[in-house]
Specification:
The chain is built from four helices and ten strands; from the N terminus they run E-H-H-E-E-E-E-E-E-E-E-E-H-H. By secondary structure, it is α+β, with helices and mostly antiparallel strands. A hairpin with a 2-residue loop joins strand 5 and strand 6. Helix 2 packs across helix 3.
């Protein structure tokens, strides 16, 4: 985990007189917005063993994080439907009503292994961010923090555009199929 002060070398030059706690708070806010927009911080949870008596399970998020979205679920190694709306669909699926608990739409059998892959963001009490997210996106998050501190609309626009580019790159890299190409006629 990289602490917020690791971002200071990229943020401090744009706000040299701003106190460090204010800078770190702006970095936290930028990291939260970045992770919410891009869903770049992805964690796979340890398997949860199901019980026939339960339809609801606690989600054990990594310390200092909040759920952005359940990206996928598998039950005994097979893909399992994830419902992201109001939990009024039919069939078997999992959903979260509050970002802290996971519910099955129907009871499962004893001893099945449920594995979740979720995107997360730093929570209010977070002390830092995942090392891999830091290494890949330190300059983008720092740009968001500088935009927040200075109130510079142009920098905020660049931050948002970079987030959109990252969303596209992540989608392209994680897509199950190749992206369609445009036809070219001679």
């Amino acid at each position: 985990m990289k602490l917020w002060n690791a971002f200071l070398r990229d943020v401090r030059p744009s706000a040299p007189t701003t106190p460090e706690p204010v800078l770190e708070h702006a970095i936290l806010r930028a990291a939260q917005e970045f992770c919410q927009r891009t869903r770049a911080w992805v964690v796979e949870f340890d398997p949860t063993i199901t019980s026939a008596d339960a339809t609801e399970y606690d989600m054990e998020l990594p310390a200092g994080t909040e759920l952005v979205r359940i990206e996928s679920a598998s039950l005994d190694g097979h893909p399992f439907a994830v419902w992201r709306r109001d939990a009024k669909a039919s069939g078997r699926y999992v959903f979260t009503p509050d970002g802290r608990t996971l519910r099955f739409s129907q009871r499962s059998t004893d001893g099945q292994s449920l594995v979740l892959t979720c995107s997360v963001k730093p929570g209010e009490g977070a002390k830092g961010i995942d090392d891999v997210v830091f290494a890949r996106y330190v300059t983008v998050i720092a740009l968001g923090a500088v935009a927040g501190i200075t109130g510079d609309a142009a920098k905020q626009g660049r931050f948002e555009a970079k987030c959109d580019d990252i969303v596209f790159q992540l989608w392209k890299g994680n897509a199950a199929t190749r992206q369609r190409t445009e036809p070219s006629f001679f």
